[in-house]
Amino acid sequence: MIIAQQKPVKDIAAMISDCKKVLLVGCAGCVTVCLAGGEKETEVLASSLRIMRKMEDNPLETVTYTATRQCDPEYVAALDNLTRDVDAIVSLACGVGVQYLAERFTDKWVVPALDTKFIGGSTVHGNWEEKCGLCGECILHRTGGICPIIRCSKSILNGPCGGSQYGKCEISKDVDCAWQLIYDRMKALGKLDKLMEFQPPKDWSKSRDGGPRKAVREDVMID
Amino acid sequence: MKTESKLQKLLDSGHFAVTAEIGPPKHASAEGIRHHAQMMKDYVDATNITDNQTAIVRLSSIAAGVHVLDCGIEPIVQMTCRDRNRIAMQSDLLGAYSLGMRNVLCLSGDHQKFGNHPTAKNVYDIDSMQLIYYLRRMRDEKLFFSGEEIKEHEPRFFIGAVANPFADPFEFRVARLEKKVEAGAQFIQTQCIFDMERFERFMEMVRERGIHERVHILAGVTPMKSWRAAKYIQNNVSGMIVPDELVERLKNAEDPKREGVEICIEQIKYIKENIKGVHGVHIMAIAWEEVVPEIVERSGLYPRPKVE
Hints:
By secondary structure, chain A is of the alpha/beta class. Chain A has eight helices and nine strands. Chain A folds into two domains: about 1-120, Rossmann fold (3-Layer(aba) Sandwich), CATH 3.40.50; about 135-195, no CATH class.
């Protein structure tokens, strides 16, 4: 899932400082699971903003709503009636949700309440880690199910580099060396010979380097 | 801010400048570069050396600059943001200055999709606006991009940027040009002009904002070899406008290459005589460097003024 974190409340408040009434929109997708922009976080943010503004003697009116998903025009359309009299919309979704709202409500000032961080998962409650680099062409079958694109700080395909020591990456003792993990796993699986295959440079045109990507499935299109 | 650039001296003293472009080869010999440089030597004030143009691997701009300098022309090193991060950029710029380069043109660079390594990663760590800003700061405030002090021998480049009057949104192009000037650009070379009317409208807006008084604008021109080349650009190159009349004129010409040269000369004369605020021309004779001396001479821009 997409992992996001809320921006500092004062930063969000600054984005809407000239507004009298705002709509805060949560998202019941990924950001609910990672506790950044679900129904609960939306209500808490709304009351924090109201309190801040009340203390400044400049009260703010808030309306809250949590969409099933902000990354789907169908669910975004459900907001039509709520947006009419607000001065701005604060989205608590990932960057996708913010943009879908901005696309739908062309005359509204739409601002992000979250920083979209990465895609990953959680280890224990309250701890998330990055696992996938969205490179567009998965190579996990070659690296023992450990992604060197995002988990190696240099995205090295024929690692490890000379900075790997005691299982850690040269950038920090808190970062595991992905190639140590790959090596350990391939060794345990009796597949070390696979690591001797020369991995050619990656086709980055399938990643963000090729420009904004689209996925099309004609077989599931309705019209 | 003064630099040791001869191009700057020339422009600052009010001369109408002539620059041209040399495209380095896809191999490791400088013979062609030196040949073109020697040929252009007395006809241009400086030559741009493209930086892996259209994302095709070529001999490096800075290395080619050494050859050009050696042949007696002042080089304008081009630096795109596509291939280097801020560390490599600064390192190359320090190196370029140490080798005698005094002019840098900052640009985004064509996407690698168009080149011979379409599966490459692109960098764009720094964009062209930021590059201009930080280059100026390196020189005027003696700071690395990070803000760390450059203790001695800061590179003191004459800073160039590009502007494309033919890209969209048209009105914003002038504002963005102004933003580049604010960031530190001292000279501007435009995209190849084929649609003169649009360029005139662009310059009108430039003059309205008084930008021409704060920066030296060099109008980009390109002689066309054939109507097919013109048609190709018209249909396939994003951010360029080629009017139908130009394609037709080349199509109907007995000798299209001669006609291409004639058109280019007419354009230069027109720009020089009629468009206020243009301080020079930049001739981009793509894979046709040989024709530059004739264009300069017949446009009435020869001999070139001398500056010390």
